[in-house]
Amino acid sequence: MKSLLYRWVLLTASVALAAWIAHRLSLAFVLRVGNAREVAELFLGSAVLALANATLGRLLKLATLPLRCLTFGLFSLVINGFILLLVAKLDFGFTIESANPWAEWIAAIVGSVLITLIHFLLRRIVPDP
């Protein structure tokens, strides 16, 4: 149970840091944590993101296996960006909104890469419980 809670907190911190960095890069990835309710929504959003990655992400990666092989795995970035964009549209503490759909895709792909990198770094820095 501690391990699950540990990973959940690290994923939430990764989403928050990625949204902050993406906002500084003028991307459409926006984080809202003005009060305790919004922080709780962010934790719920990161749980939904983890569940979507574990279920829908795996199915999409399996279904697009030939395309991922042709692109040497780079199509996984598009899948991860799609999952992030899908969860962000649910508006749980973070969102990706822009008038330009291409800007949303770019923000989602960059955001998913940032979340992955930050989560990797945090897992290396913060010891397991």
Q: What secondary-structure arrangement, pairings included, does this model have?
A:
Blueprint: H1 2-24, E1 29-31, H2 36-63, H3 65-70, H4 75-89, E2 94-96, H5 101-125
Antiparallel strand pairs: 1-2
Helix pairs in contact: 1-2, 1-5, 2-4, 4-5
Judging from the principal axes of the Cα atoms, what is the shape?
Answer: globular
Measured distance between first and last alpha carbons: 10 Å
Contiguous uncertain segments of 5+ residues:
none
What is the count of structural domains?
1
Name the beta content range: under 5%
| Estimated radius of gyration | 15 Å
Oligomer: single chain
What is the β-strand count? 2
Task: Walk me through this protein's architecture.
- The protein has 129 residues and is mainly alpha-helical.
- It has one domain (27-125).
- 75% of the residues lie in helices and 5% in strands.
- It contains five helices and two strands.
- It has helices at 2-24, 36-63, 65-70, 75-89, 101-125, and strands spanning 29-31, 94-96.
- The chain has a two-stranded antiparallel ribbon with strand order 1-2.
- Helix 1 crosses helix 2 and helix 1 packs across helix 5 (101-125).
Keywords:
globular, 5 helices, 129 residues, two-stranded antiparallel sheet, mainly alpha
Short description:
With 129 residues, the protein is mainly alpha-helical. The protein contains five helices and two strands.
